[in-house]
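so my prof wants the structure for this chain in the tokens format not the other one, which i didnt know existed until like an hour ago. anyway here's the sequence
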Amino acid sequence: MDLLIKNGYVFDPLNGIDGEIMDISVKDGVIVEKVDEHNAYVIDASGMIVMPGGIDIHTHIAGAEVNSGRLLRPEDHVRDVEPKTPLTRSGVGYSVPSTFTTGYRYARMGYTFLCNPSMPPLEAKHTHEELDDTPIVDKITYPLLGDWWFVLEYLRDRKIEECAEHVAWMIIATKGYAIKIVNPGGLETWGFGGNVKSLDDPVPYFNVTPREIIRGLCMVNKMLNLPHTIHVHTNRLGQPGNYITTIETMDCVKDLATGDKLIIHITHCQFSAFKGDSWANMRSGADDISKYVNAHSHVTLDMGQVIFTDTTTMTADGPWQYTLYGISGNKWVNHDVEVETSSGIVPFIYRRKNYVHATMWAIGLELALLIRDPWKIYLTTDHPNGGPFTEYPKIISWLMSKKAREEILKKINRKARARALLPSIDREYTFYEIAIVTRAGQAKALGLKRKGHLGVGADADIAIYNIDPRKVDPSNDYKAVQRAFSRAAYTIKSGEIVVKDGEIVNTLDGKTYWINFEPTSQLDPLSNVAAELKKRFREYWTVEIENYFIPERYLKHSASITVRPGV
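here's what i got, hopefully its the right format
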């Protein structure tokens, strides 16, 4: 049935719409100019906010790493149980929820598109099985390629075009979307029992540096014309003084930018924004990073906001997770994925009265508030590393209300409060800016043409929140903001109502999107790379190449996006 949303306050930043009272018409899962009101299902959104469906650019929701986190933490299961209903499956998990539970909880908050940021190519099949099992929301996933053995060889030998063809094959083979780089050079060095300490610290055996990896894959990304930039987890994450490395990382590709075109995304930047040379004098580097971002147009960030809670940290950055295990003394898993990547998982509790934890909490908000242009920074917790995604409404209230931030500041470690920049920041986000950092900005950074906006031709992924922007002052009534964004009045996915008043009323199969490449005379990865790789697979992998490549028919609910490479 056609759908008509009437009289809502529409916030659609990609189309410059800032709280105008408008109608939105939907036909066949797409937003259209007009429908016949007499033959449409009508939603009266008077006194409500209408936004595009939420987008999460970085959330660990699927794959072997996430599943290992579930296995490691049975205590996390009993904390938060999703009961079975006539429409929904049961599920468990607070910080690492099961697949069905993940889809339901995101949909309840008005989210419709998720980006799984960490996929070892060897474990891609498992990742796609779990993505396919996650209902309602659409998904993409990023293969880990920064410490991929053969990428390092190509970059060492300055064979950028050959590297681009190899990366294109990997993205097609694993049905990925973007190039993910984690602690470049550090993961391979971890295989030799060490880590890199700077952008110019050579990786053993390969004699290639993190700087060369980042720049090389940035050039590859441009050659392949991928819709998203390189997605970078910086070196020295979680270490005092790492803000300098973060600024150097952003700056090392600056000369590769053309005009205002984005070329690098720094993910969960809070974890990479520490000043000091020890935990005793660790403090915020948000001001320096924000000044750099404010002065340059080639970079975007996401927050990686910390929540004071019990959560599960997980990352491909194996050496950092080993360090975190040593700091916390908690149980721990580390894993090496053949010639591809590493990973680690450690349960963790962020405490208000802990100086370092309280400083980290402040840094994420400082980044979001000091970076003037909300199109350059997006709301994430690096789920579940900084805290569960279900806490996003709380973060929205902190961004919109200085009073809400002050309530938390009163409760945190005194030394952290005294050293923080946050108490001096008066800025409060508007609903328009919230729409940017939770959907429009992320869609733009990901190159999603039909997501993140409500223009004609866009996919009808829509969120309606029961809050009146003309009657509610978010600065003072921040709890009303938190309640509204916790339970959407309506979530509409592909033109169908899936959530009403915070309850699941319809379960759909969301799609997994992946990148395909149009062959050119210079780049034909399926023809050229597979033959070369067969011998390497026999030498290095535990599987044959035929069992590694994921055919399109393997994905039950998927759609490819065809890209014409620029080489």
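also thought this was worth mentioning. The chain has a mean pLDDT of 95.
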